[in-house]
Amino acid sequence: MHYSSILPEVIKVADEASTKVLHVYQSDFKVSYKEDESPITAADIASHDIIVKGLRAISRDIPILSEESALAPWEERKHWRRFWLIDPIDGTKDFTQRTGEFTVNIAMIEDGVPVMGVVTAPALKEAFWGIRGEGAYKRDRTGQIHRIRVSEPRETKRVVASKNHLNDETRAYIETLGEHETVQAGSSLKFCRIAEGHADIYPRMGPTCEWDTGAAHAVLLAAGGNVRALDGKSLQYGKEDVLNPHFIAAGNGYVPSP
């Protein structure tokens, strides 16, 4: 499949979902909680519905895995060589706290690798996308589109960390990096800040699922970065267990190690 031929349509779908999400964000929305006590709003459901409808219009044959849909049985999923992976809103806590740092995420997974990704930040009016081997791009709040790439290694590492998920294990890892400064970012924007050269490394020593990382992982790969589990292996998708292992996302020249 030539992903560059469908990328504009995928961006259009993400933008449509973002418009709806922003409408809810600017309203007096209610917050409910799922069985795992994670928050959910009308924006999550509306975004999911728009993205699923849009992706099915692009291709009816490619399966879709979304945070907001029932997980297909492993007996079915293990045969998926290629599938859409979506997180209708990553950073729902940022959404409910109105920080603006939440994202809409659409990825294409092929043979366990995120080969195309689109990430939009509706409240920030930013969007990122990339295709493996073809480069990554950012659309800024003025609507200008720029090619982005990870920065060259620096003496003082810029470590991007989550305000909501900075645990003791992550802090301990950061301390091993030597001279560093911290860059705060929410949701999958942490990957995107590395992809555009504004940060260098993002250690995540806490739980995430495949849909939390797939789209932004694709953008970072396209921008020259990498995402590896603590054993040094690239983060894989389409596993029986959708939970990710702990991982380190990094820019050019950084070889993450535990």
SSE blueprint and pairings:
Layout: H1 3-25, E1 32-33, E2 39-40, H2 42-58, E3 64-66, H3 74-77, E4 82-90, H4 92-96, E5 103-110, E6 113-121, E7 126-131, E8 135-139, E9 145-148, E10 157-161, H5 168-175, E11 180-184, H6 189-195, E12 201-204, H7 210-222, E13 226-229, E14 247-250
Parallel strand pairs: 3-4, 10-11
Antiparallel strand pairs: 1-2, 4-5, 5-6, 6-7, 7-8, 8-9, 12-14, 13-14
Helix pairs in contact: 1-2, 6-7
Please provide a written account of the structure.
With 258 residues, the chain is an alpha+beta fold. It folds into two domains: 3-148, Fructose-1,6-Bisphosphatase, Chain A, domain 1 (2-Layer Sandwich), CATH 3.30.540.10; 157-250, D-Maltodextrin-Binding Protein, domain 2, CATH 3.40.190.80. 30% of the residues lie in helices and 27% in strands. It contains seven helices and 14 strands. It has helices at residues 3-25, 42-58, 74-77, 92-96, 168-175, 189-195, 210-222, and strands at 32-33, 39-40, 64-66, 82-90, 103-110, 113-121, 126-131, 135-139, 145-148, 157-161, 180-184, 201-204, 226-229, 247-250. The strands form four sheets. The chain has a seven-stranded mixed beta sheet, with helices on both faces. The protein has a three-stranded antiparallel beta sheet with strand order 12-14-13, sandwiched between helices. A hairpin with a 5-residue loop joins β1 and β2 (39-40). α1 (3-25) runs antiparallel to α2 and α6 (189-195) runs parallel beside α7.
